[in-house]
Amino acid sequence: MDRISFNRPFIVGKELYYIAEAVIKGHTAGDGPFTHRCHELMQNRFHIEKVLLTHSCTAALEMAAILCDVGPGDEVILPSFTFVSTANAFYLRGATLKFIDIRPDTLNMDETLLEKMITPKTKVIVPVHYAGVSCEMDSIMKIAAKYGIFVVEDAAQGLGARYKGKFLGSLGHLGAFSFHETKNVISGEGGALTINENRFYERAEIIREKGTNRRKFYRGEVDKYTWMDVGSSYLPSDIIAAFLYGQLENIDLILQKRREIWEFYERELSPLAREGFFELPTIPKECEHNHHIFQLILPTPQLREEFLEEMKKNEIGAVFHYVPLHLSPVGERLGGKKGDLPVTESYSARLVRLPLYYSLAREQQEFIVKTICRFFARKSVQIGPVLEM
Ligand SMILES: *Cc1c(COP(=O)(O)O)cnc(C)c1O
Hints:
Blueprint: H1 15-25, H2 33-46, E1 50-54, H3 57-67, E2 75-79, H4 84-91, E3 96-100, E4 122-125, H5 137-147, E5 150-154, E6 162-163, E7 166-167, E8 174-178, E9 191-195, H6 201-208, H7 214-218, H8 238-248, H9 251-274, E10 287-288, E11 295-297, H10 301-313, H11 329-333, H12 342-348, E12 351-353, H13 362-383
Parallel strand pairs: 2-3, 2-4, 4-5, 5-8
Antiparallel strand pairs: 1-9, 6-7, 6-10, 8-9, 11-12
Helix pairs in contact: 1-8, 2-8, 3-4, 3-6, 9-13
């Protein structure tokens, strides 16, 4: 166990009290009172037409793939620099995955490469808002509209963040949030599908309820419920929703705390960044982010390894990600090879994430910063300024 772990789940308000309430009041299956409260809160707060809680962001992405009628022969454009679920949700439906390279500043899909990847078979574009910093959504939505393509936002990391004033998850046709314990707002496992076009709503309810119209039945709109469509069980227990509601109603507190931690890293590490030891995150001016990740980009993969080794020695849970999907065993089976996506390959080999979570104390942060400064002080003596490597 590290002295400072990479992540720690946290309680911010009435989460446990609400769980007790859900159990005592006797509704613990899905779509109970707490699920509805979460839906209302998120729809109002993030200006999203409809929100449906799911048991994970992965589930929400799977639902989106079904809603877009993705099937064999359809092409889906997505970054290779992402979590595996972005790909799997569409791969599961038999789609052909087309991996797009990323921008070196935000590590988001490079929208300037998008148009030339579009073919008559392109069905969906999946922008992943890395670290809760928005993709260049105006350009992406414009290209999608021109060719009649769906946009599904992977906003797993994007809750509460904005692009030109609009909340992530409200920008594409569909979107997906995650409440996994490593995200900003958590419920252990958890997620939500966001629906920004009404035409998807009725079918989404059915897909989420095992392909039945059970939600209509509960609302008294039909006198029996039955099998209507494909579907699965994508809804979370109301126990999960109860925990989540305790977090969501305190989202301002959570975001503020993360902002303080993120800005401390930025302030304390800027001098080293100016000397060229690493790059700090870049936030374009149209993006208001949610301080989800603090990453450093080191000059070389070898220095990244040494850096991680040093963190480990000091029991600091720094980590890296992602192994580019096009170079994973599945990606290689699909024809991916080294050199396909130069920016993805270069940045993913040099990236480090620092611990960043609600209960991370200032003294812990100071220790992390000190350890980093000591490491680079030693490096610059050993090998001279890294800029010249
Ligand atoms: C966390 C994450 C997911 C998966 O979320 P789950 O809720 O664990 O299914 C998908 N995409 C991205 C970009 C993520 O960061």
